[in-house]
């Protein structure tokens, strides 16, 4: 059994939901996994006491969560000293169009460059549109973004684009990496094409 920390930045809850599902997969494999919102990090959940760390961030208006950037920059040595990975959640990742997928991949490239961290495993997952939870301005902005990203502009309903099988597959792959301890075998990889 190993201990695995999943640190996430989630504005509207989908990245938190994905993090919890990843923890369920780890727990199901007999590991001790903990998901923590980046703003709730304490000395006990800073990463130094865990055997492996996953970091997840949502994308809003083309940017990763600022707190996640700061966490990775401040803890890069801790991350690189153990098996680690990164996953991103965005509407762009849900669109099968090659240009839109390239845009989603560019967000990851910018994150890696901006933090100077090179995760052992990388994934991108489709997010969600929760029109029913948005205020007027956010609903308006998200409808404009969704028009290009997914085409789902009916604000009378919510949409979820996360492929849960891909989330579970990524979690299983990361768990296998941790169990074997062979980070060099897989190296940096894009596990999902959500």
Structural commentary:
The chain has two domains: 3-127 and 162-186, 3-Layer(aba) Sandwich (Rossmann fold), CATH 3.40.50; 130-161, no CATH class. The strands form two sheets. Strands 1, 2, 3, 4, 5 and 6 form a six-stranded mixed β-sheet that branches. A two-stranded antiparallel ribbon has the order 7-8. It is globular, with a radius of gyration of 16 Å. α1 crosses α5. It has 194 residues and is an alpha/beta fold. The protein is 43% helix and 21% strand.
Low-confidence stretches: 184-194
Provide the helix percentage.
40-55%
CATH class of the largest domain: Alpha Beta
Sheet/helix structural class: alpha/beta
Pfam family, one: Flavodoxin_5
Organism: Haloferax marinum
GO molecular function, one term: FMN binding
Protein name: Protoporphyrinogen oxidase
Summarize the model shown.
With 194 residues, this protein is an alpha/beta fold. The protein is 43% helix and 21% strand.
Ordered list of secondary-structure elements with their pairings:
Blueprint (H helix, E strand, L loop, with lengths): L2 E7 L4 H15 L3 E6 L14 E9 L2 E2 L1 H15 L3 E7 L7 H18 L5 E6 L1 E2 L6 H14 L9 E2 L3 H17 L2 H4 L8
Parallel strand pairs: 1-2, 1-3, 3-5, 5-6
Antiparallel strand pairs: 3-4, 7-8
Helix pairs in contact: 1-5
GO molecular function: FMN binding; menaquinone-dependent protoporphyrinogen oxidase activity
Pfam families: Flavodoxin_5
GO biological process, one term: heme biosynthetic process
């Amino acid at each position: 059994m190993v201990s695995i920390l999943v640190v996430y930045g989630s504005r509207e809850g989908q990245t938190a939901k994905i993090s919890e599902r990843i923890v369920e997969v780890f727990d199901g494999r007999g590991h001790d996994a903990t998901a923590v919102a980046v703003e709730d990090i304490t000395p006990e959940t800073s990463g130094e006491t865990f055997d492996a760390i996953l970091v997840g961030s949502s994308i809003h208006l083309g940017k990763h969560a600022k707190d996640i950037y700061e966490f990775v920059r401040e803890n890069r040595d801790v991350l690189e000293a153990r098996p680690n990975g990164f996953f991103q959640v965005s509407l762009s990742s849900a669109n099968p169009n090659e240009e839109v997928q390239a845009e989603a991949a560019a967000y990851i490239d910018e994150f890696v460059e901006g933090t100077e961290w090179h995760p052992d495993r990388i994934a991108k997952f489709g997010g969600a549109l929760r029109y029913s939870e948005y205020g007027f301005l956010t609903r308006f902005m998200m409808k404009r973004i969704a028009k290009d990203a997914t085409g789902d502009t009916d604000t009378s309903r919510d949409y979820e684009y996360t492929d849960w099988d891909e989330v579970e597959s990524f979690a299983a792959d990361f768990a296998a990496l941790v169990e074997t301890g062979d980070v060099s075998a897989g190296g940096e990889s894009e596990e999902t094409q959500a």
